[in-house]
Amino acid sequence: MIGDSEPLVLGIETSCDETGVGIVRGRTLLADAIASSVEQHARFGGVVPEVASRAHLEAMGPTVERALADAGVTFTDVDAFAVTAGPGLPGALMVGVAAAKAYALSLGKPLYGVNHLAAHVCVDQLEHGPLPKPCVALLVSGGHSSILLVPDVASDVRSLGSTVDDAAGEAFDKVARVLDLGFPGGPVIDRMAREGDPAAIAFPRGKYNDGTYDFSFSGLKTAVARWVEARQRAGEPVPVADVAASFQEAVVDVLVHKALKVCKDNGARDLLIGGGVAANSRLRALAAERCEKAGVRLRVPRPKLCTDNGAMVAALGSELVSSGLAPSELALPADSSLPIETVML
């Protein structure tokens, strides 16, 4: 551990379309500055990697400066830097990794290259304290739908299940496009669904009882598209709120069902939900309801900490420092396909 007190760690996140810079001391969040390029991607209906990389380049310096000002610290106060080394968009990752290397090298500070998914797990400690050992983590976002067993977030994260096609967040975006609701799809479908009937349309639940912990949302996305197309061909109005609510219910039903199955099969009494889709109001409500019935303790960070942010990277960096793990080499690569089992590079 660095020094005699809890480490002050600055974390940088650039895996997709948000430039995030967070600063934590131990498990206390001091700053969480974000610059999003989502509006630049909206007209394309999805994230454009080259646009994201350029946006990170432009936002990096100002976002770091804003985080330092918010935390009331300077570069010389920082004990260590942490950065998302993967998984994510290659070009976007390279911007963050290069910036973190420059800061660490110029200031003579240690650098920790961390796993984006493990960081989504670790960020909950900033809000709810140390993670139980072990706990089950359900991570759901635009690029990932995974179930993890986490004996130790700093060194032992195990993948038990993942998506075999579309991730949950990706399905939200594609269905929003079918319904002409814009991008990103998650927030707008969540809002529309509150006005609809989740039982109005019996959309399929892929791999619901297949005996695995894996997910599949491609068939559901296609079923929604075909249902909407059939209505349009018949000249009938599309009940957008009902479609949104029924689709959303199918997704969250599968997610919670599989997560609780993992808890039951592994004797785990604690479930953590993270990632951008964890901000979905129906997922949070259904998980709370079913976890209470199953006697499982539920942990979900506040919505702002569920989406990509620098705080989660700083949180994992702080955990690694406090655990006495050696920092990464300055030759640290950006690995777009970094496996979840590799917590740090």
Q: TL;DR of this structure?
A:
The protein has 345 residues and is an alpha/beta fold. The protein has 12 helices and 10 strands. This is tRNA N6-adenosine threonylcarbamoyltransferase.
In words, what does this structure look like?
This protein has 345 residues and is of the alpha/beta class. The protein has helices at residues 38-42, 49-71, 90-107, 116-122, 125-128, 168-178, 185-193, 218-233, 240-266, 281-294, 303-306, 310-322; strands at residues 8-13, 18-25, 28-36, 80-86, 111-115, 135-140, 145-152, 156-162, 270-274, 297-299. It has 12 helices and 10 strands. The strands form 2 sheets. It has a 5-stranded mixed sheet, with helices on both faces. Strand 4, helix 3 and strand 5 (111-115) form a beta-alpha-beta unit. Helix 2 (49-71) packs parallel to helix 3 (90-107) and helix 4 (116-122) packs across helix 12. The radius of gyration is 20 Å and the shape is globular. The mean pLDDT is 93.
Q: What characteristics describe this protein?
A:
single chain, 345 residues, alpha/beta, 5-stranded mixed β-sheet
